[in-house]
Specification:
Blueprint lengths: L10 H30 L2 H10 L4 E2 H7 L5 H14 L2 E6 L5 E6 L1 H5 L1 H34 L1
Length: about 140
């Protein structure tokens, strides 16, 4: 929390404190939102977290759980998630190589917020689609005139 240096006592000092505190809160919130989006904006991030949230998976198991992702994109996503600390990769020295992926504690910590976001989407997406249709209809009606 940031405190402003305040020489005047009374209303002005409270106002200055609130102004500085609120400004820092807004900046931190915006920064947090940008950082959160930088992490989860990758479409495959959310899907991989969902596939791993119930435990370890081999690469082939992830490919079966996420049928629309190419091997290259899944590999890139897993490497990025491992680099960021969301996924732990364990390679077993056998032939053929056996590799397992699992969410780390950091990866597990992102599950509840993603579940809430997914729940919100399920509950509200029909409403969003209705607003899109209504908006598109209004724009089309304006362009017809």
């Amino acid at each position: 929390m940031t405190y402003a240096h305040i020489d005047i006592v009374g209303y002005y000092s409270v106002y200055s404190y609130l102004e500085v505190t609120m400004r820092n809160t807004q900046e931190n919130t915006q920064l947090g939102a940008q950082k959160a989006l930088a992490v989860v904006s990758d479409h495959w991030f959310v899907v991989v977290v969902h596939a791993l949230m119930n435990g370890k998976q081999r690469f082939s198991g992830l490919q079966r759980a996420i049928p629309n992702v190419s091997k290259k994109v899944l590999t890139q996503t897993l490497r990025r998630m491992e680099r960021d600390g969301f996924v732990r990769r364990t390679v077993f020295p056998v032939v053929p190589p056996h590799t397992e992926y699992e969410l780390t504690n950091l990866g597990q910590s992102v599950v509840p917020p993603l579940q809430m976001l997914c729940r919100w989407a399920l509950e509200n997406f029909e409403n969003v689609e209705q607003h899109r249709i209504s908006y598109d209809d209004r724009i089309a009606a304006k362009s017809d005139h």
